[in-house]
Specification:
About 15% of the residues have low confidence. Among the domains are: about 110 residues, 3-Layer(aba) Sandwich (Glutaredoxin); about 110 residues, Serine Threonine Protein Phosphatase 5, Tetratricopeptide repeat (Alpha Horseshoe). The longest helix is centred in the middle third of the chain and has 31 residues. It is globular, with a radius of gyration of 25 Å. With about 375 residues, the chain is an alpha/beta fold. Strand 3, helix 3 and strand 4 form a beta-alpha-beta unit. The chain has 15 helices and six strands. A six-stranded mixed sheet has the order 1-4-3-2-5-6.
């Protein structure tokens, strides 16, 4: 049970935290580029392939992709982008811009582009001066690559994000079913939620320093983020904080970080409640399930707690969802994930699914370029 004094102290910290969230929410507005804004200028160091683009023509659609030569996911997405460009050659101009190549000589970038042939079947340029990085990528507040921008017929940014979603977004735009205002609002909300989570992770360290009070500083030393939210011996307090934060901002309820901390705490407090919570998470739409959070918590606790068959089945289902949503399966340890899923299925007493999972792991292993059926090296 919490003491009255503890509750009072927590209330003080939460008030300061929530006030900070409101002020930090203004930082979200400092991002200079969002969906619905006019597209920035195209500022290129050199065009490497096809027709140069100097400005966006009214009435035309454009796809602008950002990539560097060292980005394997970027390269993996190029054949599909090339197919997309050929299929929409009369309607959409596709431009691919190499970025983050400060130390890469232009002739080597050109050589890479030439080697790709029709796997890069679109216009290609390079941004050596970081102008496109600053005015496009950094301006959105997210510099992750690969990244695509779609420019609509009015010269506005209609969407930006991962190439995986390009086809579905373009189809809606071309069928006049794309709600640009809704998309803009969703980006703003996600920025706010990200800022909220960041603030949670640093809240207690910052706020304890703000008070000249020995008791609150003691509280900070006992419960600040690195002790409380990671491997905490006081899971009841972790759960208390998580629920308070969710109450303030319901949008973070199923955030990966929140799910991970809540599930970890519930496993330590009440295994049945942990099971029900995990089921609740898995009942979300598949593309909204933070499957990696469930996997991480269950794997880290598998040896310490003897999970029920039902909880192990939860782990296997989380792996199924996670594997299905891997965008570039050839670039990650899919073999490892199938093998780990096998173990959860086996402990869940689902032998048929365990065998199927391990067969998939073996199939992936056989297709690996370094695979050899020669087992003579093993005793």
């Amino acid at each position: 049970m919490f003491t009255k004094h503890f509750i009072l102290l927590i209330s003080v910290i939460l008030i300061v935290f929530l006030t900070s969230i409101q002020s930090k929410g203004q930082v979200v507005d400092s991002f200079t580029l969002n969906i619905g804004d006019a597209a920035p200028k195209i500022e290129i160091s050199k065009w490497l392939k096809c027709t140069p683009l100097h400005s966006f023509e009214p009435g035309k659609l454009y796809v602008i992709e950002f990539w560097p030569t060292w980005c394997k996911p970027c390269i993996a997405s190029m054949p599909h982008l090339s197919e997309f460009a050929r299929n929409h050659a009369n309607e959409i101009s596709v431009i691919s811009i190499a970025v983050y190549e400060k130390n890469m000589p232009l002739n080597k970038i050109q050589k890479f582009v030439d080697s790709m042939g029709n796997r890069m079947d679109f216009s290609v340029a390079v941004d050596k001066n970081q102008q496109m990085v600053e005015n496009w990528l950094q301006a959105t507040g997210n510099t992750a690559i690969p990244k695509i921008f779609i420019i609509n017929e009015h010269g506005q940014i209609a969407w930006f994000g991962h190439p995986y979603y390009l086809d579905s977004v373009v189809a809606k735009i071309m069928n006049h079913q794309w709600d640009i205002q809704k998309a803009s609002a969703e980006v703003k909300m996600q920025r706010h939620l990200n800022k909220f989570i960041d603030s949670i992770q640093t809240a207690f360290f910052d706020y304890a320093q703000a008070f000249n009070d020995s008791e609150i500083n003691v509280l900070q030393n006992q419960y600040h983020v690195t002790n409380l939210f990671a491997n905490s011996k006081k899971p009841d307090k972790v759960l208390f904080y998580m629920n308070k934060f969710i109450q303030q901002e319901p949008g973070i309820k199923y955030d990966e970080y929140i799910v991970m901390k809540k599930l970890q705490a519930l496993i330590k407090i009440n295994m049945q409640e942990a099971l029900e919570y995990a089921k609740e998470i898995l009942n979300l739409p598949p593309d909204k399930v933070p499957a990696s959070a469930i996997i991480l918590v269950l794997k880290n606790n598998q040896s310490k707690y003897k999970f029920s068959q039902e909880m192990n089945a939860i782990g296997a289902e989380a792996y199924e969802i996670y594997i299905k949503h891997i965008i570039y399966p050839d670039l990650v340890h899919t073999l490892k994930y199938y093998h780990e899923m096998t173990e959860f299925y086996w402990l869940a007493k689902n032998k048929d699914q365990a065998i199927d999972s391990e067969i998939n792991a073996i199939r992936i292993l056989k297709n690996h370029p370094d695979f050899s059926p020669d087992l003579s090296a093993f005793p």
